[in-house]
Amino acid sequence: MYTFSNRLKIASIILMIVGALGIIGGFVMAPGTIAEAKAMVASHDGGHGDAHETEAAQAPKENDHAVADTHGEEHDSSHDQHLLDQLKNRPWAALYVAAFFFMMISLGVLAFYAIQRAAQAGWSPLLFRVMEGITSYLVPGGIIVFVILLLSVLHMNHLFIWMDADVVADDALLQGKSGYLNPTFFLIRAAIFLAGWIGYREYSRKLSLAQDESDDNSNFKLNFRISAGFLVFYLISESIMSWDWIMSVEPHWFSTLFGWYIFASMFVSGITVIAMVTIYLKSKGHLPDVNNSHIHDLAKFMFGISIFWTYLWFSQFMLIWYSNIPEEVTYYITRIADYRLPFFGMVAMNFLFPVLLLMNSDYKRINWFVILTGIVILAGHYMDIFNAIMPSTVGKNWYIGIPEIGSVLFFAGLFIFWIFRALSTAPLQPKRNPFIEESRHFHY
Amino acid sequence: MASKVIHAFYDDDDVLMLAVKKVKAAKHHIDEVYCPFPVHGLDKAMGLAPTRIAITSFMYGCVGLAVSILMMNYIMIEDWPQDIGGKPSFSYIENMPAFVPIMFELTVFFAAHLMVITFYLRSRLWPFKEAENPDVRTTDDHFLMEIEIHDNEQELKDLLMETGAVEINVSEKNSH
C-alpha cells in the first residue's frame, strides 16, 4: 500500500500556491483600459509601434486627406479595442491552456487504459492502478475546464469570439454555424462528454477494485465490455470535444483531422505520464513486479505515438500549405509569422527529440532516459496546445511569462496532489486480475 | 576439417528452450540450432551476441534520406524548375514540405531493402544455394540442436536424452 509521502505532498502544495500567485498576478497585471493596453505594448515592443507610425505617415499621401483621417481613426480605435481584448485574454488563455493540458493527460491515460481493458492485454495489468490513479484527475480537471468554458459563455472573457452576439451579427459564416456553435448546445455537449468520461472512469475503477475481492471473473468481463463500449463513445466525443474546445477559438477555420491530431497529443502525453509515475513509484520501492520490459513497452509507445503525432501534424500542415486556400492557410500564416519559435520548436521537441533519444532499444529501458525524454515530450505537447489556443486569443501579444508559468505550476501541483492521493487509496498491485501472472512474467 | 557432431532432435519449442538452457548450464558450446520457425528468446538462451542489424538499418536510413534530398534537389530545383500551385521551385528549403513524403519513403525504402540484403549476405544466403540444414525435418516439425563432440560423446548423449530429445544422431561434418 502506497502512502503519499510528505515531501511530495508539500512540494505539490507549494506548486499550487506559487502557481495560484502567478495566476492572480496575471489577472492583476492585465490592462483595464485601452490606454493601459497601449502603454504596455509600447513599453516592451518598440518595433511594432514604429511600423504603425510609418504606415500612418504614408497613408495621407495616397488618399484624400479627410477620408484617410477618418479611416485611420476608425481603424485605430477598433485596433486598440482588439489589442485590449487580446491582453485581457492572456491570463484567461494561459489558465485555459494549462487546465486543458492536464485534463488532456488524464483523458489520454483513460483512453490507453480502456484500450488495455478492451484488448485484454496481458502485459499491462500491473500498471492498471497507476493508470487509474492518473485518470482520477479527470474529475477535478474536467470540472475546472467546464467552469472555464462556463465563464466564457457568461462573457467573463473573449476566448471564444463566436459566443459574442455582436460578432455573430456581423458575420455570415458564424450565423451559418450558429445551429451548432451556440452557447447552450456547447455547454450541453461539454456536460455530456465529461459525464461519459468520468462515469466510465469511476465505474471501471469500482469494478477493478471489486475484482480483487471477488471469487470469479465477472467483474473483469463486465469491465472488458464497458471498456469496448466506452472506446466508441470516447472516439466520437473526443473528436467533437477537440472541435468545440480548441478548434472553435478560430471559428472560421476547420480541419477534418483535428480530432485525431489532438488525440495523438493527449495519448502520447498520457503514456509519458504513466511511464514517469511508474518509474517514480518503482524508485521508491513500490511496484516490485514491474520490470524494465514494462518500461520498455511504455517507451516504445512514447516513441511510436510521437511519430504518429508528427504524421498527423504534417498531414494537416502539408495539405493546407500546398493548396494555399486563403481561409485555410491563415491558420499557419499567423503561426509562422507570430509564433515561429514555439511552432517549429514544438516539432523539434515532439518529434526529433523522442525519435533520436528513444530510437535505440536499450535506451528505452534506462529510467532516467525515459524521464528526460518524457519531460521534453510533455513540454512539447504543452506548446502544442499553446500554439492551438494562443494565436486566436492573444494574437502576437504572446509570451511565456507569469500567467503561463503560474498556470502550469498550479495545475501541475493539483495534478500531482490528486493522482498521488488517489494512488494511496488502494493497493498498487491488482490481486485477482486474470492476467496478472502474465504481466508479472512479462519479458521482452 | 572434418569433425564429429551430435544432432539432437526435439519436437516442441518449449522443450527445446529448456534443453538449450540445460546444455548451456552444463557448459557445452551449442554450434547451431535449426528451427522450422523463429523461437522467441532462443538467441539469448544460446548466448549469441546481440544483432547489429539495427545499426546498419539506421545507417541505410540516413543514406536513403540523403539520396532523396540530393535527388529531389537535382530533379525539382536544379534541372527543371517548375511553378507548381503558385510555388516556384527555386529553393529546396521553401519547397521542402512537398518533398517530405518522398524523403520519408526513400528513407524507409533504403533501410528496409538494404537491411534485407545485408541479412542475406551475412547469413550467406543467395539463389541456388544448397541448404545447410542437416535434416529436412527441421523445415517441417522438428528442431535440431548441433553440438560438436570433443571425446565426450556418451556424456553429451546422456545429457541430451535427459533434456527430452526425441532422437540423437552422430555424424561427420565438414566445416566451411
TrEMBL record, chain A:
Keyword Chaperone on entry: no
Biased composition (Basic and acidic residues): 45-81
Transmembrane domains' residue ranges: 12-30, 93-115, 136-160, 180-200, 226-246, 258-281, 301-321, 341-359, 366-386, 398-423
Annotated region described as Disordered, given as residue ranges: 44-81
Annotated protein name in UniProt: Quinol:cytochrome c oxidoreductase quinone-binding subunit 2
UniProt KW keywords: Membrane, Transmembrane, Transmembrane helix
Annotated source species: Maribacter orientalis
From TrEMBL, chain B:
Superkingdom, taxonomy of origin: Bacteria
Ranges that cross the membrane: 53-76, 96-121
InterPro entries in the record: ActD
Keyword entries, A-Z: Membrane, Transmembrane, Transmembrane helix
Pfam families named in the record: ActD
Keyword Lyase attributed: no
Record's keyword annotation contains Disulfide bond: no
Protein name: Quinol:cytochrome c oxidoreductase membrane protein
Organism: Maribacter arcticus
Lineage: Bacteria, Pseudomonadati, Bacteroidota, Flavobacteriia, Flavobacteriales
